[in-house]
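Journal club prep, notes for RB
We'll compare a predicted complex against what the paper describes. Inputs for the fe (iii) ion case:
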Amino acid sequence: MTGMIPDTHIHTPLCKHARGLPAEYAATARARGLPEICITDHAPAPDGYDAGCRMAPGQLAAYREWVAAAAAAAGGLPVRCGIEADYYAGCEAWLPAWLEAQAFDLVIGSVHFLDAWGFDNPANLPVWERVDVVRTWERYFGRVARLADLGCFDVLGHMDLPKKFGHRLDPARARELAAPALDRLAAAGMAVEINTGGLRKPVGEMYPEESLLVMARERGIPVCFGSDAHAPTEVGLGFDRAVALALHAGYTEYVRFEGRRRRSVPLPDPAAVAAAIGGGAARPA
Ligand code: ZN
Ligand code: FE
Ligand code: FE
Ligand code: ZN
């Protein structure tokens, strides 16, 4: 077994802002020695929520077929079928029952919207100029707490996403605002991901920052890893740094998912991960 870890956050063109079929993401994963991947595209929403950034409800069957085809052609690499589902006001009406019926391997729960504001969409960046940044983070973590309470997700996606464009809080304030949400994630039995997508964004660092990850570890919240790949070359990118971050935050194990059940695996040596993904060549630009 290589010292490599699975990538459990990967998109497809069905969300309208990614490119590459699941089979192409799987090919990168094989080339980089990943032991498994889970495709987790943006979930369809029957109420029209954020329709421009997700598959239509009628495309779910095609999604499953793409993932199944990738798995069949992956030469033994497990290619699992998950979903990234948004928490938003109103999702309670359909999302828990829908997820229950889907038999996914993994459900990532994410907050991308505060009311009508898609705060991580570059097209909506000007809104950040008009809002109170502290209040925005407070609202964000409030949504995360409600996400946890809904009880239908396995992993929280990109825990401190509002920092994407550089709108940070001072660390003490961030910890204070995040603590109640982390308590609820722990109570819900959820995991968090180290998401390397932030390395490719203006903030230039992973989600979450180390102090928040330490708070998760202190609460017994397990960790997993996702590149948030929206292109096949992004699979596994930055995972050497992600493993180093997990170790530095005090984790010794991470979790893998199948059929929405998880099992713990010891963390590998970051140097082995760096070697597997090609060291500097696989670093984000
Ligand atoms: Zn996306
Ligand atoms: Fe997301
Ligand atoms: Fe994503
Ligand atoms: Zn994402």
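Talking point for the session: The chain is about 30% helix and 15% strand.
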